[in-house]
From TrEMBL:
This is Uncharacterized protein LOC104590427 isoform X1. One of its GO terms (cellular component) is mitochondrial inner membrane. The chain crosses the membrane at residues 151-173. GO terms for biological process: potassium ion transport; proton transmembrane transport. Keywords: Membrane, Transmembrane, Transmembrane helix. The keyword Transcription regulation does not apply. It comes from the Eukaryota. InterPro entries: Mit_KHE1. It comes from Nelumbo nucifera (Sacred lotus). Pfam families: Mit_KHE1.
Amino acid sequence: MRARLIVFPIKGRNWCFSRSIDTSVSELGYSRTSPTLKDLCKEISSNGKSMNENAELVVDFVSDKMNRAWIGLEKAPEGTFKKKIYGLGLHLLARVKPSEIFLKSISKEVTEVEVTFPKSLNSRLVRRRLRHTALRGTIIHRKYFYGSVSLLPFTMAFTVLPLPNIPFFWILFRSYSHWRALKGSERLLLLVSDFSKALKLDASNENGKEIASDDHGINDSSIPSLVLNPCEELGKLLGQGAGYGVSRRVITDICKAYHLDTKEVLKYHNSV
């Protein structure tokens, strides 16, 4: 699967990294049947799965349950306790850094990325900044993942209260979020670091298929994992203000043109 990434400077060295929203995927929503705990145990007990694959199954199961619970809170009537919890959740989510949201969007299904950036930027610089973002993400989110997991036993003590254990569910969500960001960082680093051969081997092993090989065991004629796309139109939208700071109006126009999450991209602007 190809992911389209949009990269542009907000002000000086502060750049925006965002993934274009795939409308065909987002329209699917959660119409599929929610897996049960019995289904999860059946999948884990099946033969031929490694420990990492089983861990991914558990993470996907927990993610599905959290997303469905969040949708339930969103649809709760105004003034109810559930709606107040939803408002608190929105306040907490607003504090999550946009770089984390970006890295989480690089899922394990992504096998290549197309990077769209202003034509005025050097392609090597864009690639270097992407690699730095991915490498930094592997360090930061691994540290915070272990830190969040270590707090889970302490937050479970709040279950004695006659109220929903909000601290536990928030720390559980942060553990999941850092895990996804960590895996996204590792995937992005693989895609932008000339490791396309290793990626092809990884994909072939997952699909159980063999790929045509040359003397080195890899078909080098395959599609590259990284496509750099200098865009003149994006440069025109940015205008001459990128060095002094891009306005909120310009950011909104870019988000509409390239199908970006305006709320998340504006976080880059607010952090300047």
